[in-house]
Amino acid sequence: MRTNRWFALALGLALCVTLVFLALPVVAVFTHTAPRALFHSLGDAATVDALRLSLTTTAIAVAIIVVIGTPAAFLLATRRFAGRSLLLTLIELPLVLPPAVAGIGLLAAVGPGGILGGVLRGAHVQLVLETAGVVVALTFVAAPFYIRQAHAAFEAVPASLRDASRTLGSGEAATFLRVALPVALPGLLAGLALAWGRAVGEFGATLMFAGSLRGVTQTAPLAIYDRFASDFPGALALSAILVAVSACLLLTIKLFGGWGIAGAAR
Amino acid sequence: MLRAELEHSLGVLMLDVTLELRPGRTLALAGPSGAGKTTILRMLAGVATPACGRIVHGEDVWLDSRGGVCWAPERRRCGYVVQDYALFPHLSAWRNVAYPLRELPRRERRARALSLLERFGITALADERPQRLSGGERQRLALARALAVDPALLLLDEPLSALDPRTRAGAMRTLAAALRDLDVPAVLVTHDWAQAVHLSDEVAVIDHGRIVQRGTATELAGTPANAFVADFTGAVVLTGVVRARTGELTEVELDGGGSVLSTVGTGNGRVAVSLYPWEITISRGTGGPVESAQNRLRARIATMTTVGNRVRLALEAGQPLVAELTAKASRELELAVGTEVIASWKATATRLTAL
């Protein structure tokens, strides 16, 4: 086959531009931070608070998403019922929602004056300006990423495998646990990585719904924003840490995903 | 004893079958694609439910749509081998077989799985994933897994169709042996007549959701109920119109020219004439000695295919014909593609069925 040299050149060029544009800011975060500033920043109580808060809230949010989202996605992928496509679209809607709209929506739904405000007050649950509020915001924006991916992963599990499991003596629940879940696992982990990534970076909805109280609702992205005007090196150091943490997270999940496929043999 | 009455609408066709099967017997459901064969197996296994029906296995009522009884698939425990085998990709071969053995203690589970793998000669592959097995090995693994359930009923959906022709012969022998040893009823779906003959005790030919004819392979081939069954069993089927009846013989004017005689007195009007390729005699020349064969058609050889020591001839006549003769006879007659020949057969070998 004869390749058109100009076309190949254009493709290569496009990739180069993409790479430089996407990688440069990430690289700049590190090259602009002196290692000393990074360590100094790590000793800063505000930084540590923000990181700890980010890790715990995202972990809780992702746990909630996985525990509730997995069976929901399974149901959507395996049953045919009226209004199913509409339901899927509704679930995916937050994907394209501007964070500011998400924040307003959350306030209107579960804020003090929201639809469920009275119910929550009755149960003595306070979300706004509380850590729990951060978890709610993160769950709201990140859940669609996981559910979408999980839905696709479950849909890719052949129905014949589920049928086989049933005829081999496993009930519906056992079939879900013994066949659907392990076969869909790589897809579920990919969804988990996406959701976690989205949650770690969450900014707008959290700020509007939970506020930016240090140690209570000020997650790492909010802390970066909080200090970038007054303490640019500090903001940069925190950003570098966040990049490192995110990259580690992604890598761990990818490695774990690979292990999940190979490991199930044993 | 298995007894099933199933009625269900499959869009364009209405499935309506009644099956009865004794333990240890194998019934082949044969017929064209889309005739509803797989649906019947799915309904027996319990992964599909008919609109109306009743399935009784021994003392157990598995399904009674009027009485509101419908056992879940896991309760019926059918050994069900589906067309693509549906092996679990995340489990090794022995764990696939051990999948239904949850009640057994851990150690016995592996021992039982290995003994089943050994029965099918794939013990060496116990720790391999199904993706790494060949088609024939997968088929044997699927069979081993289906038998691990200790099935009340064995269901096989086109068990050999995913295999290449070379593997198929061996797999067919394995399967035939497994079916012989089985003491529960087995239902096999196939669209291949040879498989149906080889693997089953009885054949039920299904077309458009109904059982057209049921019997032993010999019965079906000898007295096909209609043109479809005749065609399916490998017979040559010609169409024509009954023109006259002279004494014992019925004369049929064939579409496309020529006429044949039959000893069968069935019907008037349009009929299907069926005969088997090996009942046709081939000769050269026009005159020739007087033979006992009543039917003679002039034909031209279109293709010649050697099958073992026999030659299959596709003949161009008014309607296409297939004849089979020994390679020796073919050589002696100096047959070649394009040769003009006379195809003749006896009136007694000419079956007529109304269309």
Quick structural gist:
Chain A is built from 12 helices and no strands. By secondary structure, chain A is mainly α.
Describe this entry's structure for a reader.
The complex is a heterodimer of chains A (266) and B (355). Chain A has helices spanning 5-31, 35-43, 45-78, 84-96, 99-110, 117-122, 131-155, 159-167, 172-201, 204-210, 220-228, 232-263. Chain A is mostly helical and 266 residues long. In chain A, helix 11 packs antiparallel against helix 12. The model of chain A is unreliable at 259-266 (pLDDT under 50). Chain B is α+β, with helices and mostly antiparallel strands and 355 residues long. Chain B has two domains: 2-226, P-loop containing nucleotide triphosphate hydrolases (Rossmann fold), CATH 3.40.50.300; 235-353, RNA polymerase II/Efflux pump adaptor protein, barrel-sandwich hybrid domain (OB fold (Dihydrolipoamide Acetyltransferase, E2P)), CATH 2.40.50.100. Chain B has helices at residues 37-45, 73-76, 93-98, 106-119, 135-148, 165-181, 193-199, 217-222, 227-232, 327-332; strands at 2-10, 13-21, 26-30, 52-57, 60-64, 69-70, 78-81, 153-157, 186-190, 202-207, 210-215, 236-246, 249-254, 259-262, 270-275, 281-283, 295-307, 310-316, 321-326, 340-345, 351-354. In chain B, strands 7-8-9-3-10-11 form a six-stranded mixed β-sheet, with helices on both faces. In chain B, strand 18 and strand 19 form a beta hairpin. Chain B is globular, with a radius of gyration of 25 Å. Classes of the chains: A mainly alpha (266), B alpha+beta (355). Chain A binds chain B through residues 158, 160-161, 163-171, 178-179, 182-183, 185, 261, 264-265, and chain B through 42, 45-47, 72-74, 76-80, 82, 84, 86-92, 99-100, 102, 127, 129, 145, 148-149.
